[in-house]
Every structure is written in C-alpha cells, then in structure tokens.
Amino acid sequence: MKLYDYFRSSAAYRVRIALNLKGVAPERAFVHLRRGAQRDADYLDLNPEGLVPLIMTDDGAVLTQSLAIVEWLDETHPAPPLLPGTPVERARVRSLALAIACDIHPLNNLRVLKYLTGTLGATDAARDAWYAHWCEVGLRALETRLAREPATGRFCHGDAPTLADVCLVPQLANARRVDLDLAQFPTLLRIEAACVALAAFAAAAPARQPDAE
Amino acid sequence: MKLYDYFRSSAAYRVRIALNLKGVAPERAFVHLRRGAQRDADYLDLNPEGLVPLIMTDDGAVLTQSLAIVEWLDETHPAPPLLPGTPVERARVRSLALAIACDIHPLNNLRVLKYLTGTLGATDAARDAWYAHWCEVGLRALETRLAREPATGRFCHGDAPTLADVCLVPQLANARRVDLDLAQFPTLLRIEAACVALAAFAAAAPARQPDAE
Predict the structure, then answer these.
(1) Residues whose CB is less than 8 angstroms from the CB of residue B35 and which lie 6 or more positions away in sequence, other chains included
(2) In chain A, at which end, N or C, are there fewer CB atoms within 10 A of the end residue's CB?
(3) Domains defined for chain B, CATH in brackets
(4) Which ipTM value was assigned to this complex?
(5) Residue A157 in contact with residue A151, Cβ under 8 Å?
(6) What residue in A sits closest to B91 (Cα-Cα)?
C-alpha cells in the first residue's frame, strides 16, 4: 500500500491518523501542493481531481477522497473499529465527520483561498476573515451537538476514537491558523486533548511528517 | 419517518432520490431556506447546523448530512443496494459521491454565495463565475474518471444506480443554473439520462416537490 500525502493537507492528515489507529504503515509519496505538484501530468493521470490524499493498494487499485479511504480501511482492517455498531450510531459519527468534511474544510482549502485573493481580488484580511467565519460557524454547530448529545464520551462518540475524531483534530489544527477564539468550543478542545494524547494522533501531526517544512 | 426538506436544496434532492429508490415514503416537512426558516429557533434546536436535509426516525433519532442519511438508509433498507459488494468498489462509489459533496457542492450553496456578494462585495457576475468555475473544475475531473474507468456502466458504477448517481443528478441540476457548457461532459450527461429515465429520480426533481415555487 502506498499513501500520496502532503504534510499540511488536513484531508491527508485524517488518513494518516486512521492508518496509525489501524497500525498500518504504507509506503509514502509526497505531493507538494504549494509548489503545484498535484497538477503534474503524472499525478493528474493518477488522480484527475489533483488532490491528496490518494492510496494505491497492493493490487493497484487507486483510492481517493479521505472519507472513502477511511471507510475502506475500516472495512479491510476492522480492528479497532472507526465506526460504531448500529446504523443510527454510524449515521451520527458520519454526520459529525461530514459536517467537517463538507461544511467547513472545503471552504478553507488552498485552492479556494487562492481564488479569493487571485480571481476575486480579496485582501489577505478578507480571506482570513472568510476562513475564520466558516470555521467558526461550523465548529459552533459541532460544539452544540457534542456538548448536548448523550452519545458523546471521552471522544466524539463514546470512549474510543472514530471517523469523527479523525476529522475533528485536523480541522482544529486548521482553525489555529487564523484568528479565532477556540475557547468558545470547550467540548471540542476536551476531545482534541483526549485524541492527541494517543500516539496514533500525535504521530500524524503535520510537523512530524518527513516532508514538513 | 419524517424528512425535513427544501425543494431547491441539492443535498435534500439526494435523499429524496435515495428514498424513492428504496420505496420509502416518509412524512415531509419543508424548511424554506430562502426565507431563512433554517435559522428559526425550533429548527436550530433540531439541527444546530441549520441545514437540510434532516430525517427523524420513528424512534425519534435525528439524522443529518445527506450522505450519512443515505448510508443509514442503505443499511436499514438493503434492497436495492446503493453501494456495491466489495470494499474497493464501495470506495470508488463513495469517492465519486464525495468528489461532488465535498469538492463541488459546498462552494455553490446558498449561504456561501450570499457571503460572496454580501460580506465580500462580489458582483453578481463574479459570484456566477465562481459558481461556474467550481462546477466546471469538479465535473471535469468526474468526467475524466467516469469516461476512462472500466467500472463505469450505464450508471456511475455498473448498471444500477448507486450513491454516486444520487449525488450526480442534483449537481448537474445545479450546474444548469449558471452559464456552463455541459456538452463537455458527455459521460455525465449519458449517465444523467439513464438516471432521470427512472421514476425514482424523476419524482425527486425540485420542480415536482410540494413546496416548489
């Protein structure tokens, strides 16, 4: 198995956490997003979306989209499970993950920020305010849910990490890049602390990757 | 079961298609997004994200996020399946769905377009160009994949509709709202035609909903 990765990609960060939780250590390749390596012909041939992460399986299958990769990993390496046991519980965990993956992260990824300042001519301050706005709106809704729902435990769902935690920790790392008061999200910070105390999460952090700058 | 819906929401449109494919006809409630009904206190109490769709199950569980809802529906109502049989095939279908749900749709939903013209002061023309740009980038990558991957059939994956088709048809409906030449996506249009020939897709169209304007 080979992971195409980039240290600062929070979608790749999710997959790194999940691989560590499963105890799977794939071969690694690094796609330097800031230098535009995702638009090289060879990479686009592998992934026409020009995004990371990407997994090439030992059988040569190419898997893209971080949440699809984590679900595949959970199906092929069932222990420890990253989704709970019942359909309603799985729907809860997936909805928490998707609230991050669909409603926060796409609005603050690199290509979108570049369009704002480039094509739309937004100032750096306006771009940062955009980034902070969507983080805040999305994280506030997550805080409300996680604080009040009885299924929340030490982690987003119960007392073991799931797909939701795999998404939460990278998104909070993103939120720290802009001026946003995270103290308004005490439940998220409490869960994040429980996560990063685990080696699987800590070892996946951007600063600890071989391509970190 | 009760579906909280809005005719023009393409995320709700996905769930309507999936329900129809499963032959499930829930009670309906309509949340008028253009009038801001998603920010009413009662609705925010139900869904702190202030988004549709939402399903309330017969047991009172609240399910949000369209893809989480469709996965739940597929687990609780297995026939006909909306995901294929092997982990790699499921990863393919999920990645196609997520390429739409994460990389296209979040950039052209209503609240984001309002931020562009409101807070950022973009012109209507700049907003429409943004919308068309992200549709085009995302749909082009999908066209490349679907045209070349042998697993593509009459539908996105093989010869029966899956989660990927459930996402594709609403996204193409969105793309038609802006000036974008869809003829550059012949595979997507061919699959869309196969989908809308089915009553389950046709009956889920925005114009055919009770709250359509």
Answers:
(1) none
(2) C
(3) 2-80+201-208 (3.40.30.10), 87-199 (1.20.1050.10)
(4) 0.98
(5) yes
(6) A68
